[in-house]
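Progress note, sequence design subtask.
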């Protein structure tokens, strides 16, 4: 029994070109080689999409790249190319992951060049900013992560819920900064929550750094709440940031006020979650 050989990628491409030949002939008459290349690029985009949907990201990436080369103005091919690279990031680690994440960032930034950006749909532009921010988070580049979240907030006609989500995410990064500092002064107590040393036991630079981080975080959390007062998670992190601020505060009266405000924020978080749960269950 003879085993039929599977066609190579080159063979499939030849087949696609032959299939497109009649159309290319018409395109050549009307638009020249440029028109033919545009038709081939669209066929390649469809091929790449099929490979991507099968999880063959590297193969899809190569096909999308060829589509871009055929038609340098084909923004959709550039978008798919960047997405195929990004899809590889979570499957890699170490230096390979860093390299791929940087490649994806550059591919997405290419889309934001004026000649490409003008052709992007609003949804695709928004997602491009979101993916760049997320890739910088993967690289543990916190400043760039915050920068691209801020840029996403400032996009024209940005939805208030998306603004709130981005501003909240920035606030969380500052809570992480503050929490890392206060953890240095924690003592583990068996069967109890960790106890934090009083600020007079802290280094002054740690107090200053924590207070600065907490205040920056609260600034973004308040902006998130202003953008979407129903965004429950923002109130949760408002409470956490106020508690961090209290840990590094020496004024007993101010500490009491911070703790009171933190409790009010927790109660608002719980109230919004109850409302959301009631809505999901039909108000029962």
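Output:
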């Amino acid at each position: 029994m003879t085993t039929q050989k599977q066609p190579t990628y080159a063979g499939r491409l030849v087949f696609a070109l032959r299939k497109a030949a009649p159309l290319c002939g018409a395109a050549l008459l009307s638009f020249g080689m440029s028109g033919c290349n545009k038709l081939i690029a669209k066929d390649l985009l469809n091929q790449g999409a099929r490979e991507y949907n099968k999880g063959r990201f590297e193969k899809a990436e190569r096909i999308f790249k060829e589509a871009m080369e055929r038609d340098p103005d084909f923004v959709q091919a550039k978008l798919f190319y960047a997405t195929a690279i990004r899809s590889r990031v979570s499957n890699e680690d170490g230096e390979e992951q860093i390299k791929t994440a940087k490649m994806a960032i550059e591919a997405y930034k290419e889309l934001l060049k004026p000649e490409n950006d003008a052709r992007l749909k609003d949804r695709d532009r928004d997602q491009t900013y979101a993916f760049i921010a997320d890739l910088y988070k993967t690289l543990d580049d916190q400043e760039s992560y915050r920068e691209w979240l801020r840029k996403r907030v400032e996009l024209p006609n940005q939805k208030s819920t998306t603004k709130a989500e981005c501003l909240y995410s920035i606030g969380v990064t500052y809570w992480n900064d503050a929490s890392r500092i206060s953890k240095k002064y924690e003592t583990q107590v068996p069967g109890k929550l960790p106890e934090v040393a009083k600020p007079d036991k802290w280094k002054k630079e740690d107090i200053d750094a924590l207070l600065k981080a907490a205040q920056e975080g609260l600034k973004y959390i308040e902006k998130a709440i202003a953008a979407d007062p129903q965004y429950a998670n923002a109130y949760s992190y408002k409470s956490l940031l106020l508690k961090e601020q209290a840990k590094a505060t020496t004024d007993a009266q101010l500490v009491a006020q911070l703790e009171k405000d933190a409790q009010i924020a927790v109660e608002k978080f719980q109230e919004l979650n109850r409302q959301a749960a009631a809505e999901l269950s039909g108000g029962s």
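The chain has a mean pLDDT of 89. Work on this subtask will continue into the next period as scheduled.
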